[in-house]
## 1
Amino acid sequence: MISLCKNYVDSSSTNYIMSAVNDTKFNSAVFLLTGIPGKEDVHLWISIPFCLMYVISIVGNSVILFIIKTDPSLHEPMYIFLSMLAITDLALSISTMPTTLGIYLFNSREISLDACFSQLFFIHMFECIESSVLLLMAFDRFIAICDPLRYASILTLPRIDKMGLVCVLRGVAIMLPLPFLLQQFQYCQSNVLSHCYCINQDVMKLACSDIRINSIYGLSVTLLTEGLDSLLIFLSYVMILKTVLSISSHVECLRALNTCVSHLCAVLLFYTPMIGLSVIHRWGKGTSSLIKILLGYISLLVPPLMNPIVLKSKHLRVRIIRVFGEDRSKPLGS
């Protein structure tokens, strides 16, 4: 009897110690980020184009912000929306840069749970804000082409400020529950992520808990943000096209369409890879991991890189050339 009691106590003590070890292990758990599988020996060389992409993104968007801020003639709705997009692109680049360059420059793959949850919150929030800004830019083009006489009275500066604030509050309110939902899960499966940054649909797959609520919420968020915004952008361009085709002058028709081309390019650059990546994560179980990784890079790195190039209007381009041309023509020490 004494022996049985002793064995029971020893067994209980062992279970308690193992439970404590498991809890400690869970609290200090980390995720492992993924670069390009099989190319670990050339990560340093791969870092060169990534560094160039980040430099071009940050410098390009910063130049646009500087020119718009310092030139009073550019304080118009179209350029204010462009500056909003530039700020969002800067924030999105900064959100992914530490982990991306950390992998390729320093071979640092580990990221703590809290850091991962924080990064995915900021990435998804800025994606939501960028989607909202692209919708505002479509609204701007819609008013300018379909109702030009009321353009100045509808898009006033105070109203534009409120629109920008709503975009930010919308992104924060919708994406804030994501990290808290993920914190409720236990991660006892493989801790290797599919990308060099954290996103919700990738992290929740590593949980060994029931993720149905998180999955439903994530899908609902996608449909109510990027899905709804892209639908409204499509409808606005249907109305724009209907108005443009009713113009009798071919020159005026082409001029009106030309004002929309750059915005359409930005919309396609943003939504196409994002929708493709979301579909692959949810339903593309047999898809190659390389395609998933490439789409991940394209969805978050290409829009901030290309938007300063495709969205620069002729007026803004002239201002940039004039500013840098004047600076270059000044003698040293002047």
## 2
Amino acid sequence: MSGRLISELPEQDLAGRRRASRNTLRAQFALVIFLLAFLPNLVLTLTAQPALPAGALVGWMLLVGVLCGMVGYVLSGALLRPLSRLQAEVEGGELTPHADDPAEILRLRRAFSDLLSRLGTEQTRRNAFMATLVHDLKTPLIAAGHLTHALVHLPMPDAERREVGAQMGAETARLLALVQQMADAHRFEREDVMVQSAPTDLRALLDGVARRVKPQAEWGGVEVTVDGSGYALADAQVLERAVTNLTENAIRYAHSKVELRVTPGGLVVADDGPGLGGSLAQLAQPFTSQPTTIAGQQYTAGTAGLGLFIARRIAEAHGGELHYTHQPHGLPSHEAASPLPASALPTVFTLTLPEVTP
């Protein structure tokens, strides 16, 4: 029974290919041209009723039919040549415009170019996502594994055991934060950020962020200050996530000081670090596929831009923008920047909001 089914499969496949070969655009064009050329000749011949034997008349019509079929085949190929050429280019992955392309083919070529560009972007981001899994997630997992092995198999006093347990907790928190950032970036890339705006005390929001990052700041020897006051319509929980991302990045690369400030234009996170290794538009992307240099340190493709991307999307959801300026050694910046007052510190991120009231 199974041998019979296997033998029937090639026959079914061959029949399907035959149907597909008959149901082509060229065959349809050739048939239309054939009918347009042959039917008038047939009507004229029958109307004229020439004094010819039936055999000769049938032979003449067969000859006309063959000629009409050949003309239809040749003309259909000529009409579809730009489409066949586009098919070959799409299969080869390289689209080149030609001067003799009809307008429809030009539009189709542009559509295919846009599609291939989007597919290429998705592929590079997928590769970067895999790099994230291999690199960024593996590091805390390996550290947690070593700590667990030490906690289970090595004799140690209670104080040291508690310290190892605290380190395990820190690695677990780092892993969870990274997973949350990856999930947020994936969601914010495909969906709009949902906000529920309400009157928000921006100074209280910054004070809460400063308290949350205090252990990280103390461990790095960085001072975090908060200044300014104001209110705005915002989703406090979502906006706090954006400011936290910016503040944690600032603490990670600052030399000694990070400043959080409420301004008439929004919220400012500034630090005395070396700044970004590229433009904000380039780095604030999810799962960037290019290596990134920050503070003189090389980062592989992965999560280097997740925090900035999430902050930018949250700013846009509130009707604002995320700006970045860097003024080394306190010199005025020559880059196009927001005219809002920011900070005397060199590296400044400004999350603008539509309206901030005192």
